[in-house]
Amino acid sequence: MLTFRTLKLNNITLSLLLVSLSSSTLAETWNGSVSDDWFEGDNWSPNTIPNSATSAIINNGQVNLSNGASIINQLQLAPASNNNAQLTISDNGHLTMVGTNVIAVGGASGSNGSGKIVVTGDNASLTMANTSLYVGLYGYGELQIIDGGKMYMQNASRGLILADHLSATGIAEVDGQGSLIDIAGNLTVGGDGKGYLNITNGGTVNTHGSYNNYSLLIGGYNGDNRGGGVVVIDGIGSTLNITGDVYIGNTASGKMSVSNGAKVNVLSTASSYLADQQNDVENSVLVTGQGSEWNAGKNLFIGRSNASGALTINDGGRVSVGQAIGVGYGDDNASLASTGINVINIGGTESSAPHAAGYLDAPAIQLFTADNSILNLNHTDNTGDYILAAVIDGNGTINQLAGTTTLTGASSDFTGKTQISGGRLIVNNALGGQVNIAELGMLGGSGVINGNVENAGLIAPGILSSSNVDSPTRFGSGFNTLTVNGDYVSNNGKLVLNSHLYDDNSPTDKLVINGNTSGNTHVWVDNLGGSGAPTLNGIELIQVNGLSDGEFVKSGRIVAGAYDYSLARGIGSNATNWYLTSFSNELVDPENPVNLGEEMKRPEAGSYTANLAAASNMFVTRLHDRLGETQYIDALTGEQKVTSMWLRNEGGHNRSRDTSGQLKTQSNRYVMQLGGDIAQWSNNDLNRLHLGVMAGYGNSKSKTRSKSSYQSDGSVDGYTVGMYSTWYANDEDKSGWYVDGWAQYGWFNNTVAGQDLASEEYKSKGVTTSVESGYTFKVGENTAKNASYLIQPKMQMTWMGVKADEHTEANGTHVSGKGDGNIQTRLGVKAFMNGYADQDKGKDRVFQPFVEANWVHNTKDFGTTMDGIVVKQDGAANIGELKLGVEGQLNKKVNVWGNVGQQLGNKGYSDTAVMLGVKYNF
Fold it and tell me: Is residue 348 one of the residues assigned to a domain?
């Protein structure tokens, strides 16, 4: 603690010394009658250069001391009111003072003189052997040590004082490489006046004394708060070295700034004090910029008595302390708490925008005062996460405002409050006290909270750094347990957990609460590599050892492989805990594990299956989808030709289920195909072989609903190109045998959009081929009605080679399709009537109503494999089909047709199709 009575007495003594200067020593007074040269005797009165037995008094004028050395007793520069004087030492100039009285620059007792000393150049120096230097005693004083100049103060207990009295202003500037002030005594910046010290561009100031229990005092030593001191150390190489205690803001405002690579070094056995007494002034230290350092000594105390102080560290600056930092420590014995507001800011202040963090190296931080001792963490993550290893104690406040902060110290004895308003606070050891998480705040880590937690924001044990934050609900890459030893209260807070979703023994993040729970918590679970599996008791996520009145509610989908997981409260001896289960009903009693229910399948499996089934089936055509051709005679050549262009449009609706019965899928499709003959041959003018090309576009949209209440949308659209060939044994009336074959290549875009999941996109492609044959024969005729009756038994075999690309979902599930290579056979019979009305006789107008029945068999089920679990479409192995329609020739050039088909299979499988077609014969 400073001894202020002694300081006051010294000021009185100083005034008396200055008043009696002329009587105690001989004095030479500058008149400057010849030049500004110090070494010109005629410039002095009485005509003699000052020496070791005399003092120099320079009231006014510019004095230059160069190219020589001078030893004097002492110096007064501009001592009287309205004096204005400057002494410049340069160019191998050296001035030494050997007297024991003080040296004053700028105003003696009661005067407002203005004085300035400049020492410039690396071969210029100012030395005081046994005295102190006052720059700004009562008036204005300025000291410049620049461009390598040197000033030495030897055996100077009071050392260098900038702005001693209330009316004074004292400024010292040490600028440039090699520029030096070396003080064997104290350094005071702003005694009772306004003092300023600037150390820039590689300058150095050393102070190695301890008068009145301090080596450096910035801001007030006599109780008047109207003055103050400001110290700026800026630039690489700029250094302030101190061997004793440091006081910044004693009875007046004290400020220090260390920036751009500068350094302040306090001896390891000394301590630093910021904001020591006065409560209504600003006291602050800013350490900013890469390489900037304040080595504050053994301890750093912020805020004694009722004073307020702020330490700000940002942009890569560093503050180091050997033992501890005390914030709001009250008195020397830390037995009383400070009534001032005292703050450490990492990054920005509480009210400013975030800044890049600085570094605080201290074994311990004590926040002594509730609400008034504050640690603000308000930084960006531009240079990585901020790690604070100090042990935090006391009952103050920790404010996490922005950025990612990791606490690694064992701070279980902290009894204050931690407020997480923004950014992320990661606790990887222990933290005591109350923790409050605001809406924009996040708590993570694998540590222990020794107090209560109130959660209105987000808890994520899996987050260990900002680098493993991928999205608002995806954190971390490993598995951690966060423990709360107190009570847990949630105000609709969120909990995000990583889990390897598989069986009961799956590794997972956990939240352990040893106290009671209340309120609602929304839980997200992120799957890290799990492929899904049946569970028994479930995967334990939340363990509650007290009263479990809180509710933990699943938010969003929790999926792995083919499974949907749900979050449920345990039963029996596990009734206070919460588990993930892949079964449809409640968890089982671990002592009586029966009635497990169904494994919950994801609806996306139905969407993937529906897409593949649609891409494989919707372009499958039959001969009568294109109809036969008519003949005509070319008018110019008389040559018989056959050619045509046809177009068919089909709309359909499909319903199916999976083999478990959990998934129900409905889909709607539209298909358009266009084709035409390009060549024909006959070897006996009776039969005919037709060759044609075709192309098509189709799309299908499906919706799958699961018993889990979730749903998924699927869509597929694509194109095909292909060729067909048809042989008729009798091309004239199409009776007898026919053989039809075709091959198509299709390519498709697929989408699956699961509820609350990312939309998935993938491709599919492949070849589909078919061969069909039938025999048409007449079974009757009614000439009166211009009608004949025909039967056509037929069979078709189709090979389906469309294959979906293997795909990995955003959640990590590997998906592949099943069912490509399916052989579909169709065996059936068609009965139709061929005729025309009386009024259409001779008009080439013919209509052909028909009914057709088929049995369709598929050798493979379409399905989906999700992380090794197969989900298949059910009921499509054997299908019965009934089709009704009419085909008509309006004239020799235009044919139209339409039909409605209905398919029925097992397990609710059905398909309804409506087709309309038109053909133009050239």
Answer: yes
Task: Note the pLDDT tens digit of each residue in 458-493.
Answer: 999 988 766 555 444 445 556 999 999 999 999 999
| DSSP assigned state of 52 | T
Together in a domain, 765 and 806? yes
Q: How many CB atoms lie within 10 A of CB 225?
A: 18
| d(C-alpha 605, C-alpha 610), whole Å | 9
Beta strands in 190-279 (DSSP E): 194-200, 204-207, 216-218, 228-234, 239-242, 246-248, 253-259, 263-266, 272-274
Residue where one domain finishes, among candidates 242, 270, 298? 270
How is residue 499 written in tokens? 């889990």
CATH code of 742's domain: 2.40.128.130
Q: Are residues 307 and 262 in the same domain?
A: no
Residues 877, 903: one domain?
yes
My answer on whether 294 and 247 are in the same domain is no
Report CA 515 to chain centroid distance, whole Å.
31
Do residues 789 and 707 both lie within one domain? Answer: yes
Reported pTM: 0.81
- Among the candidates 313, 347, 378, a domain finishes at 378
Tens of pLDDT, residues 360-398: 999 999 999 988 999 999 999 877 789 999 999 999 999
Give the total number of structural domains in the chain.
Answer: 3
Q: Which pair of structure tokens corresponds to residue 29?
A: 């007074």
Label residue 788 exposed, middle or buried (CB < 10 Å: 0-12, 13-18, 19+). middle
Q: Distance from first CA to last CA of the chain, Å, rounded?
A: 113
DSSP code per residue over 124-187: -EEEESS--EEESSSSEEEEEEETT-EEEE-S-SS-EEES-STT-EEEEEEESTT-EEEESS-E
Domain that includes residue 205, residue range:
1-270
The pLDDT-based confidence of 332 (bands split at 50, 70, 90) is low
* Entry field: residues in the chain: 922
For residues 659 and 870, give the distance between their C-alpha atoms in angstroms, rounded to a whole number.
10
